[in-house]
Specification:
Number of helices: 11
Helix content: over 70%
Strand content: under 5%
Length: 279
Amino acid sequence: MSYLETARRRSTEDAVFAAGRAVAARLAGREHWVLPAACLAALAAWEGLVRAGHVSPLYCPAPSAIAVALLRLTTRGVLLADTATTLLRLALGFVVGGSIGLGLGLAMSWSARLRRIGDPVVAAVHPIPKTAILPLILVVFGIGEPAIVAAAAIGACFPLLINTMTGVRQIDPIYLEVAANYGSRPLDVILKIIVPASLPSILAGVRIAFNAALVVTIAIELVAAERGLGAMMWLARETLRTEDLYAGLIVVATLGIGFNALLRWVAGVLAPWHSRHAA
């Protein structure tokens, strides 16, 4: 291949790469419009298919019918009351289970003996689907609030335990050695080295733990509660009010989006270095 042909090929490749970068830059400036536009297009197609009779409204009601159901349930106070009930159960279970998981995670990462004892237990219990042990939870705690809170606590405990232990174990030992050489107290080591260094991993565990606790809470409300979003969706299913069922799912999805947005803000405040790196 001659020098002229090589130069021509490289010039063509550079032009293609430059055009690709220009297109990528234009798309990057408009990327915040892509998701809303795609959602609106999907909702419009969904509405059109239902109104044209291609999709049964019994199984897949139109978005407009779901919006009417959301408004009706909200104005009657049903949706707000059930959401508040679910959030209270979720908060109690998340605080109890998260506190246990965080404490055990720190303890197991600090003590090799406790880690040798606890690791097999965690490896055996954590893979069990939490919804599969709902019958056992109902047998132990009975049908009522304690069973729902206990199920949410179990769902929140293990993700936070594992992420906390992983975050602490990834800390460079040299930091701990320097602290020991300077005679730092164990409490100072925990508060000034271990917690800040493992905070990003702990926050990731909080996010996973919340989602797991929410799933378990809704699941047990479906079968063992008279109030709450899960009970509302089960009643909607039994009475074939499918639009109410979809309304409940939208509220659950909104709770997940809202909490994750809140957690990103908290992470930006508590661990700004990690947020900038992740961005």
